[in-house]
Write a structure and sequence with these properties.
By secondary structure, the chain is mostly helical. The chain is built from 12 helices and no strands. The protein has helices spanning 8-32, 38-60, 71-92, 97-104, 107-118, 125-142, 152-174, 182-201, 215-238, 241-248, 251-263, 269-298. It is globular and about 45 Å long.
């Protein structure tokens, strides 16, 4: 991306949409979990997602990009994402929102490590050091050696980062193929996770139907998620990750403020300090990759 094509102000505006979308998801998700289990929520979210992708791709003229190829990669991606999203929803009901968001920020570090293990990318000393730094940040946020120890909610929040990292790694593989378009990825994401959601929800023999009162919340949960990822992708097309990522970090104080207003949740110093360390580890990785990319283009 040349200096002439960088639009930091436009990227910041798009990122504000992503921050709002992710925060809206959290509030809608926590409300929905009062009456629906996580599998039911994911099933209905995915149903709305399938309908939305088909309508938008038809209007945009990209429906022809939907193809039944590279299905093993799509399946791996969606099992990883489905697992991570269900764990995220489960943790949403058990730990403070700010703590959950702070631990979720760890997934890019796991992606960097996973890329070295599964995609053949070199594990550099810097990547190893930033992974260690990120792990320290996770320990500070989770406080496993404190009075409360590692609760089920904290374990779910940490595990969801692994699910999201696995999804990102499969996405990296998919984008290296002709079928790695946004439309194709989102279609199979919604369709496969609809099947996974219904299948898991029916394990106990029944699946609760949503009510008309819950439909707006389900729509917010589904569309806010799709919209947030679209805003994030657009922002990254307008400015480098080194510009976009600090704006994404604003999710933490925003969700802490929302959680305080709606649920009376107080955020501890450990959450902010640990999250700052996790962010620093991610940012060092981003700057390093940006320098490598510029050096490669200049060669």
């Amino acid at each position: 991306m040349s200096a002439q094509t960088i639009h930091p102000l436009k990227a910041a505006i798009w990122m504000s949409g992503a921050v709002f979308g992710f925060s809206s998801m959290a509030v809608a998700g926590r409300t929905l979990t009062v009456d629906l289990d996580t599998f039911e929520i994911m099933a209905y979210r995915s149903l709305i997602g399938v309908i939305t992708v088909l309508i938008v791709s038809t209007v945009a003229g990209t429906r022809g990009q939907i193809r039944a190829r590279a299905l093993p990669l799509h399946l791996g991606r969606n099992i990883s994402h489905f697992t991570g999203q269900n764990l995220w929803l489960f943790a949403l009901t058990l730990i403070p929102l700010a703590q959950l968001f702070a631990l979720e920020f760890a997934y890019p570090i796991l992606v960097a490590l996973g890329a070295s293990l599964f995609l053949g990318e070199r594990l550099t000393p810097l990547r190893s050091a930033t992974a260690a730094l990120g792990f320290i940040g996770i320990l500070i946020v989770a406080q496993p050696f404190g009075a409360g120890g590692l609760s089920i909610g904290l374990l779910a929040a940490i595990a969801c980062a692994f699910g999201f990292a696995g999804s990102a790694l499969f996405t990296k593989r998919l984008t290296r193929t002709p079928d790695g378009t946004v439309t194709n990825i989102l279609f199979w994401l919604s369709l496969m996770q609809l099947a996974l959601g219904v299948g898991c929800a029916m394990i106990d023999g029944e699946m609760k139907l949503f009510t008309l009162a819950q439909l707006p919340l389900l729509a917010v949960f589904s569309l806010a998620g799709l919209g947030a990822h679209f805003c994030l992708t657009t922002a990254l097309s307008l400015a480098p990750a080194s510009v976009v990522t600090p704006i994404d970090f604003l999710r933490l104080p925003l969700i802490a403020f929302i959680a305080y207003l709606l649920y009376g949740e107080a955020t501890t110093w450990a959450t902010y300090v640990g999250a700052a360390i996790i962010f620093a580890a991610n940012y060092i990785n981003i700057l390093s990759e940006s320098r490598k990319s510029r050096a490669f283009k200049a060669a």
